[in-house]
Amino acid sequence: MPKPGRAQTGAVLAGWFATVAHTVALLWPSWGSGHLLYRDFVTVPDPVWSARILGADGAAPRAVPLDLVTTLFGQFIPTGLQQQVMLSATLVLAGGGVTMLLRRFGWPATATAATLAIWSPYAGERLLLGQPPTLLAWSMLPWLVLATRSGGPRWAWLLRVALAAAPAALTPFGGVIALVTVLATALLQRRWAAAQLPGPLSPSPVARSRGDLLAVGLLALTWCLPWVLAGLLGTSGRGERDGASAFAVRVDGLWGLLEVLSGGGIWASAATLDSRSSLGPRVASVLVVGVAGVGLAAWWRHRPTPVDPPAGLGLAVVVGPPVLVSLLATEPFLGWLTAAQDLPGVALLRDTHRLLALSAMALAVLGGVGAATIVRVVARRVSALPGAVVSVGVVAFVAALGPSAVPDVLVRLHAAYRPVDFPAGWQRAVDAVGDGRVLDLPWQAFRQQAWVGPEPFLDPLPLAVPGSVTASRDLVVRRDGTELHVGPAEPPDSTEWAAGQFTAESLRDSDIDAVFEWLTTPGTVPQTHPGLTLVYSDDTFRVWRVPR
Questions:
Q1: In whole angstroms, what separates CA 504 from the centre of its chain?
Q2: Phi/psi of residue 296, each to 5°?
Q3: Which phi and psi angles does 525 have, rounded to 5°?
């Protein structure tokens, strides 16, 4: 099956060319001076050191150690540039990873797989949700496999694994998916090497000792420690009961199953690709799954012995996660997952769409193998045409299925990710807050500002002030006409704060030192501020001091 020798160079070049070209097409508007403020993906010009970036402020450690890394690198790399690099890396690393993984299969495999990965519904929907850091775990899957199956002395092997895991481990879910991928790959490689069988995509698996497996297991646990320790020290880590229902994938009938199988079905209506409900994208998705099936069949046909597991493993990886998340979206499994939210750490699994990372990446990889297989079959049966013509034709058709399955993702991403400049008064307002405890109003988790655009964005104030921020953490998700509230219990005074009602005495009783107000954003800000001292005001922000 795979092509040995010099053809690998051409395969690598073709895959990387496709990767860069498609990334530029999808993300070029996100490059430039400024910061990206889109849904969960926010930053500030000058992040400060605080308990929040260490996960020690009592909140669930969802951005640990991401905020710490951003603040650390922010000392010499602008945070806006960090965002843009991270956003682009989600697609570049995905396309480049499948390219290096499939380089032995020739350029039809690498170019096709890179295209299918970058135009995956999974990638598009996670980006439209504003979660490039979480998507990095998906992007690094092929690199984790490559690093884990590599040879060399133990120290060099562990270093390669650690470098591959670092981008994924910026978020708790990414750290877990990296841990599972590395351990599973290492164990399977050891099994195949002991049986003298070729592993998936590798002609000669490296046999690692038990000591190596123990060392990589300890390493994997190490990169999860930041959020584990933060969870143990700062919060119970328990998920809210409504979270399982709010974040379950959407599985509506037969087409819903296809949507999940191809990497879609995200819970958030704002991140849903509407074009996926029309006939053309559905047909394209069916064909992508069919081409991946061709790749899986090719692996099965060329297995050296009937007990060789790669084909069965590939089927399990492609089908297993979609089946699992579909079950978790229906009763009684949804009820069980809901009850389990009381257990620390289980909240990591409540956004079940994230679990499709493995199957979505496997679909792109198998799609590349399928394209290479189709090229060989067509070339044998249509001998009148030059091989290059056949290869280009097949790759052009199969690769075009990726964009055809998500035709609106380009326009949506162009509108979502555009750099903006913070208003001139932002830093003056932040400086006026001081280092005490600040009440952030209006009492909503997200903001919406004309200078940013129509899309809401997570309030970035906690990243900018050294003191603690009292703000709403309640996320409202609308599913099937029902409002589901996902967030910790609100403070006792939150009802009055949401209505814009308080006094200096009540704020002192709540240990509030300052009030920061976003103007011209949805929500209610107080009309009167009895007993408070105005310390900063412009058309966008107001800051009030609470006298002591």
A1: 42
A2: -65, -40
A3: -110, 150
